[in-house]
Amino acid sequence: MKQILFAIGVVLFASIGYAADATQVDTNSLSKVERLRKATGGFVMDRRDAEGQVVFLNLQKSVDTKVLAEEAVALERDCMLFVKVANADNFAAADYAKVKKDLGAKVLIVVEEKGSPFPLLVAPEQMFAVIDVSALRGDAPDVPVLARRVKKEMVRAMAMTFGTGYAVMGGGTLAPALSLTELDELPLGVLSMETSSVIQRLAVERFGFKLFKRTVYVNALKEGWAPPPKGKYQQDLWDQYHAMPTEPITIPPEKSPIK
Length: 259
Description:
Layout: H1 2-17, H2 32-40, E1 43-46, E2 53-58, H3 65-79, E3 82-87, H4 96-103, E4 107-112, E5 120-123, E6 128-132, H5 143-161, H6 180-185, H7 193-205, E7 213-216, H8 217-223, H9 231-242
């Protein structure tokens, strides 16, 4: 029952949050969900109190850094914690603790190209993993296919570094892939509730992260930290809260007590 209620909540979040940029139409024709989007501006992430960072250290050249950055943004959204990509020319595994400290990373995942036959090696107790792109180029894939493989291994590396295993429900990016063909068949998209919830729980309980908080855009405006507006609904709310008064402000005179 809890899983069903959670699933319903996720669906509502997706329908509200991802459509904050919807085009405004006649209010009378809006659905209940759309009216809620219009009134709240959709969901935004409050990062002010979040702590801890996952860093993908990019050492390879076969896949554009932008590809890694795109997946980092998706993982940040799904897991509600800081995820970034950093570039470097070299890295020695013996120095991983120093590199983590220099990058401000609680979790370090190296993306390299050193000819290893293993596409992914994970050391969860050390909060460390290595993705070797060489192992993903074995059948000479074209650029888009290789990019998707690297993105999938980023998801798998991050999830498994946090201590998750193969997804019990199957059919997702965390399903077993015993060959490149099987890896290609796995979907790439929003993390399953099973995976993201485990990552979030372990991030807080075992690794000392503090997660983002979800709130609606109108609350962010009231609290004074709202990000620049995206889309019509957020822009309308932004303009409303930052508008100059249209009528003169009058202060009634103080009435003196009658002596």
